[in-house]
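## retry 2 of 3
previous attempt timed out at serialization; input unchanged, resubmitting
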Amino acid sequence: MSGSILYIHGLNSAPASTKATQLSAAMQRMGLAERLRVPALHHHPREAIAQLEAAIAELGQPLLVGSSLGGYYATHLAERHGLKALLINPAVNPHRLFDGFLGTQQNLYTGESWELTLDHVTALAALEVPPPNDPQRYQVWLQTADETLDYRHAERFYRGCALRIQAGGDHGFQGFAERLPALFACAGISTEQHSFLFSTND
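## retry succeeded, writing output
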């Protein structure tokens, strides 16, 4: 489907997250809701990737928009399928970050409790890819005050890509709604007739 978007949320997140709901609302207002998929991802990487593969098959050639762990998934899938990706404060090699964090986790939006195991970590490691071999397919949006991930890891990993580094902010990425026109442009969606939807007061 031309001009479609697959939004990939992060660990312990959900379609109810702020960025996902802002994106969904904008697509709805433009009458393009059918071009967007925001799956509620399973906590296990193998299950999540299967869900995302199904969404890609449904949409055809979507822009992958990945936040945090979703950025890691998006990079794997973009490399596998030759897709464009827009990454927001993406996790780099997240399987190396879970030392000491195994055990009970809780989804911040659904309240679901689940166990983070070594099998999760092994499955994440299996998705690791080298830095993008076609960096022109990527945009990477980083904010330097990300309290969860060190933005410099992503800056180094995606150094050949189009980097947009903003001072301050946070892991949730402040000001995402104001950047939606740039996201839609990356997806090949014209917003000229909908410019009134993207005022800074939105």
